Amino acid sequence: GAISSVGNGCVLYMAYKRKTKLKPPEIMTVNLAICDFGMSVGGKPLFIISCFSHRWPFGWEGCRLYGCTGFLFGCGSLTTMTVISLDRYLKICHLEYGTWLQRHHAFMCLVFIWLYAVFWAAMPLIGWGNYAPEPFGTSCTLDWRMAQASVLGQSFVMTIMLFCLLLPSALIIFSYVKIINKVRASTKEVAHFDTRIQNHHALEIKLTKVAMLICTGFLFAWIPYAVVSVWSAFGKPDSVPLYFSVVPTMLTKSAAMYNPIIYQVIDCKLCEKLGCFKLLQKRRSLPPSR
């Protein structure tokens, strides 16, 4: 919680300092940091307190609020990464469409992302689905066991799995498979162009690698949780071992921690802004000490 709050806070601070110069992919990255920061600040303190209490001490309404905010920011993160992957797909594979994507298109995507996340997070609050404590009792999430209680619960679980996990994951995988194939085919072609085009191509590939790492990390964190959730929804009651429910939950909470590491440490632009390269060049230009 501390690492993710500080890391995503640094990303948001850097974005605020250069808010007028942010490019569309960077705007999406900032939105991802907002989701991770909200998940860290809004949820992790309650989870830590409940762990030390060995129970959920914040009541039923607190459980519903915790589950709603966690699902809201989680759905927002995955939807943001879907938009990022589609942006990379258009920029690399369909240049005729990728070139007209501007800042106002990015802000339109932000509106869609948050409306999409709010819609699905609000459904359990108005009666379709519900939020409930997890099996280990110190955290709250979607009530997956509703699938065993009624047809309405089954429809909710299957719809959530389709539109909030399977469909976004499929779009992400499709985008990066296409990108990898395109990059392999175009590497030799770009070598015949001038230096400016080569540099632009290298920058797009670099942004794509960062996006791929973020999306891969997110799927790695959430797929085990999705498997356990489906197991809880459609398996026998209490058939999920306790450790099998705790570990995936902790894994999902770790995604907010390593995302800022990926798009700060790997992206060398941050190092340039901090003056690391200038300092290194000065050191190289100094005469060797005797």
Structure explained in plain terms:
By secondary structure, this protein is mainly α. The protein has one domain: Rhopdopsin 7-helix transmembrane proteins (Up-down Bundle), CATH 1.20.1070.10. It is built from 10 helices and 2 strands; from the N terminus they run αααααββααααα. It has helices at 2-17, 24-53, 59-93, 95-98, 103-122, 151-190, 195-234, 242-266, 268-273, 276-285; strands spanning 131-133, 140-142. Strand 1 and strand 2 form a beta hairpin. The longest helix has 40 residues, at 151-190.
Descriptive tags:
290 residues; mainly alpha; Rhopdopsin 7-helix transmembrane proteins; two-stranded antiparallel ribbon; 10 helices; 2% strand; globular
Q: What order do the helices and strands come in, and which of them pair?
A:
Blueprint: H1 2-17, H2 24-53, H3 59-93, H4 95-98, H5 103-122, E1 131-133, E2 140-142, H6 151-190, H7 195-234, H8 242-266, H9 268-273, H10 276-285
Antiparallel strand pairs: 1-2
Question: Briefly, what is this?
Answer:
By secondary structure, the chain is mainly alpha-helical. 78% of the residues lie in helices and 2% in strands. It has a single domain (2-279), classed as Rhopdopsin 7-helix transmembrane proteins, CATH 1.20.1070.
